[in-house]
Amino acid sequence: MDFGFFKGLLYKNSIENFEDYKKYKNSIPKEAILSHISTLDAGLTSLPSFDMFTGEELHAGMFWDGKFTFPYEFLHYYKNYDIGVPYEYEAYLKEIGVG
């Protein structure tokens, strides 16, 4: 399952609305999710990417976690904006003992 491919990102399948992620209210603490994501291997690319709101230069790439795929930039948005993760990903994280 792909997630976090917001409109405005450089990926062909970037069709999701950023605002929709503000509706996710996860029960796992954000710090626990961030800690888990930081353990994942990232496939980084040299393609340029920029914060959709500030223009800050970001790393581009991809994370793979179980059956989930999300852009490396999602980590930046999750850390810096009031958004959550999809409930399907949260359920997976609970299954593997996160939170």
For this entry, give a set of tags.
3-stranded antiparallel sheet; 3 helices; 99 residues; alpha+beta; single chain; globular; 22% strand; 3 strands
Descriptive notes:
The chain is an alpha+beta fold and about 100 residues long. About 25% of the residues lie in helices and about 20% in strands. Strands 1-2-3 form a 3-stranded antiparallel beta sheet, covered by helices on one side. A hairpin with a 2-residue loop joins strand 2 and strand 3. The radius of gyration is 13 Å and the shape is globular.
Concise overview:
The chain is an alpha+beta fold and 99 residues long. 25% of the residues lie in helices and 22% in strands.
From the alpha carbons, calculate the radius of gyration and give it in angstroms: 13 Å
The SSE string, one letter per element, is: HEEEHH
First CA to last CA: what distance?
21 Å
Tally of individual helices: 3
* Helix content estimate: 25-40%
Number of strands: 3
Structural class: alpha+beta
Q: What is the mean pLDDT?
A: 96
Low-confidence stretches at least 5 residues in length (pLDDT < 50)? none
Report the portion of residues in β strands.
Answer: 15-25%
Trace the largest sheet across and list its strands. Answer: 1-2-3
Quick one: biggest sheet? 3 strands, antiparallel
The outline comes out as: globular
